[in-house]
Amino acid sequence: MLTTRAAVVGFTLISVAKTMTSVAATTSSEPRGLHASASEDARTGSPQRRLQRLVGVPGHHPSRVNDLLLLWPEADGHSGKEKSCNKHVVFFHGDIQNFQEEMALQPEGSQWLSWSLEQVAVILGQRFPDRHVWVVRASHMYLHKFSCYHNFVESNMFGAPEHSPYSADFGAFLHLRALLSHGMERADLPHPLQPQGGADSIPSGFSLVVVGFSKGCVVLNQMVYELPGARADPQLSYFIKHITDMFWLDGGHPGGSETWVTDKQVLKELASSGVSIHAHVTPYEVCDPMRAWVGREHRLFIKTLEEFGACPSKKLHFEDEPPSIENHFRVIQEF
Fold first, then answer.
1. What are the boundaries of the signal sequence (predicted)?
2. Nearest CA to 283 among 257, 320, 246?
3. Residue (of 6, 44, 38, 34) closest to 19 by Cα position
4. What domains can you pick out in the chain, each with its CATH number?
């Protein structure tokens, strides 16, 4: 299925890959996570950023756990310490993507090591230099390649979602908030987010950007379905108000529909939420004649939001190039 090889994405990423590969075999069960510094880019002189792995972080229910990667903000040039801030980015990856050492063991995954979770964390760090970058590893990888976000949305074994409205017992917002809270505590961040509560539970200056790529967009879609109920819940409404941006990057999954949200009622809620909406796509997903519904749903997603007064930013990347998996991944770098 994957016949071409991803382009190498730069000296910094290669350095991180070598660092992570050399230490990963001895750190996968470390309860406090591994610590590795991203190498300084020889061309730009950009400051070092610390990359930390957090294993088995619980969410809303103790039995629902995810592994996290945390890329700390750039270091202060005078003190050498990470800049103190409470701005965060959360990224949900697609199929194939995994920790560097896991991908290297799989014939398909080894072709795409340039897009491992560690590599993506560094790419996102370049896009968001002043934020903590959290990469959420899917709780299960069926056949080592199909990412399944069971902790956020009900899904089949291939990761195709069954979306549902907000529930006070289970859902994407509940799990994300608790996961971030427990991750911040595990990483010893000052002023962590509380796992539940109203306005007093949100630390000063807290803000959140949510990014989904490919299969990872199912988590963002589930959030949209939950919005009407979650915004009405005083335990979650203040948390949601601090989500500033949501980025859909070339969403796709193996189901035959609902690759993009088209339900007018929930999109009306999204349009009125104040969240900045961004949709970046490539021909690989939205111009595939074998999955024509993906392009139709994407256009309807944009059109409906605009009808409700939202101004989503949108871009078709690599439109003059043949559809390819390589360009599908490259949208992570280009958005």
1. 1-19
2. 320
3. 38
4. 29-334 (3.40.50.1820)
